[in-house]
Amino acid sequence: MSVSGKPPYDPGNIFARILRGEIPCKKVSEDEHALAFHDIAPQAPVHVLVIPKGPYVSAADFHAEAPAEAITGFWRAVGRIARELGLEEHGYRLLSNMGEYAGQEVGHFHVHLFGGRRLGRMVPQPRE
Length: 128
What we know:
Strand order of the largest sheet: 1-2-3-5-4
Structural class: alpha+beta
Radius of gyration: 15 Å
Low-confidence stretches: none
Oligomer: single chain
Shape: globular
Strand content: 15-25%
Order of helices and strands: HEEEHHEE
Distance between the termini: 36 Å
């Protein structure tokens, strides 16, 4: 099933089930606004997913519909988690896909936090 990045939200998606405790995760951090856990198929030495505690399909949905305190709390959690994982010294990458063309696979807004090695270019330069 493709993900549009727009509502409606599917409460049966895997991240919703993780938030409800129906599926276990390797938790990194949790507060009232966000849950962070290790990706099951890491693409870097550090690959953590950070998800808000609310029914938001994508960044577009989250930023349009979430209360200001949820948005602020979520992004502060992302920064705190990166700091706690020791990623600030050498740098890290944040990635969030919105919709099928961007590669969104789960219909719950989430941020990938990558670090622990030099990551290189994300999008190849065009050939001339």
